[in-house]
Amino acid sequence: MPRTHRSLTLLVASLWLAGCMGGDSSSDSDDDTSRGQVMPSGVLGLTYQTRSQSGTTKAAGRFRYYPGETIDFSIGNLTLASDVPASRMVTPLAFFAEARSALTGAIADDLGLLSHKPVEQQVMDTPAVQNTVRLMLALDEDGTAAEGEPLVFSDRVIRQLNAALPALAEPIDVHQSVNAFADPDVSDDSLSPVNQLLAAICFYPEGDELCEEPPSQAEIDAAPEPPPQSEARDPDIDYSDELQNKRNRILNAVRSIEDIELEDVDDYLTRELDAITTERTNRYYLSTVTANIPASDTAIREVFVRRAGGEVTLDNIEALSTDPGAVVVHAASAQTHSVEYFVDGRAGDESDLIVNFRPAGDYHWLRKPLRVVIE
User: Fold this and answer.
1) What confidence tens digit (pLDDT) does each residue in 23-75 have?
2) What's the CA gap between 328 and 319, in Å, rounded?
């Protein structure tokens, strides 16, 4: 896809995403299907299949599903994930059952509050997730994961991928260790299955010299030596050094899984997952943002979690005062989605009351601060 076309695709994706991430309503069709998406920045060119729906992700990586369905994803004939619970936002962390199970946990952070982020990092570091995302980045038409840009699996890349898959020595197995996935660990020059696949795909425009078969060493050896520098070269003759240079250019243009650093995978996933956390957090607000309370008023007060455009249903809630000598947390209730607190300091003291909560059916822990000023 030319860069201008890709920029236009990104603009359309961004406009759609702004609408999609503003609330939970995800159905905009004439039927009662819901609209889902793969990653906040989108993944275009994925084939998807649910029990009732099928297609290829287009602008912003969208797909359609009925609530309660599972979904399969593939790049052409290469399966990425099967039986993934379909939802409004799907990431590669949900591609594997063991990863989905792990994400339901939480770990206390430096503040002592429960957080999903350490668990996300643990799941991100598993071989299946790292190998899958590394493969996705390697098959992107540009081979990059620029911030805000969707991954794009072009029709031309998919045609070449489908043609190459039957010739692989072994199936691609993302559950291998990261090292085994990239390197078959043999003494000869054999390529791993994923690198065999990438070597069979030309990511340059059709007809580009870099998509040609490189001159063989026999052809190079049989070609005439170049004339002395004092003599002109015959433009109709392919000299040995020219063939060697062409061979080097073509071989150096072959993409491999090693071109995608593990740091690239981590950066991409962290950026996308942080965008999801931010979007979810922005749906909620506290009934009070700042509380100015006289030091003499030690009555128990209550702050509620609210949700823009909808009811609040929480699975859990907790709270922490950054200065417990000034502001004391009395109780927290998921049922009433509220936190009770009282002041116990002197005039001039201040504290942030950090309300930490997990919405029902969501593994993300979200935080909202209440500033309490004692007068």
Assistant:
1) 333 445 557 899 999 999 999 999 999 999 999 998 788 999 999 999 999 99
2) 10
- Cα distances from 325 to residues 12, 317, 322, 353, 374, in angstroms, run 51, 22, 9, 12, 12
- Rounded to 10°, the helix 127-139/262-282 angle is 100
Global pTM reads 0.86
Question: CB-hemisphere CA count at 13 Å for 125?
Answer: 6
- Burial code (b: 16+ CB inside 10 Å, e: under 16) for 20-52 equals bbeeeebeeeeeebbbbbbbbbbbbbbbbbbee
Tens-place pLDDT, residues 342-375: 999 999 999 999 999 999 999 999 999 999 999 9
Alpha helices in 111-261 (DSSP H): 117-124, 127-139, 155-164, 178-182, 193-199, 217-222, 240-252
Residue 198: exposed, middle, or buried by beta-carbon count in 10 A (0-12, 13-18, 19+)? buried
Provide the residue count of the chain. Answer: 375
Tell me: the pLDDT tens digits for 270-282?
Answer: 999 999 999 999 9
Is the separation of the CB atoms in 127 and 175 below 8 Å? yes
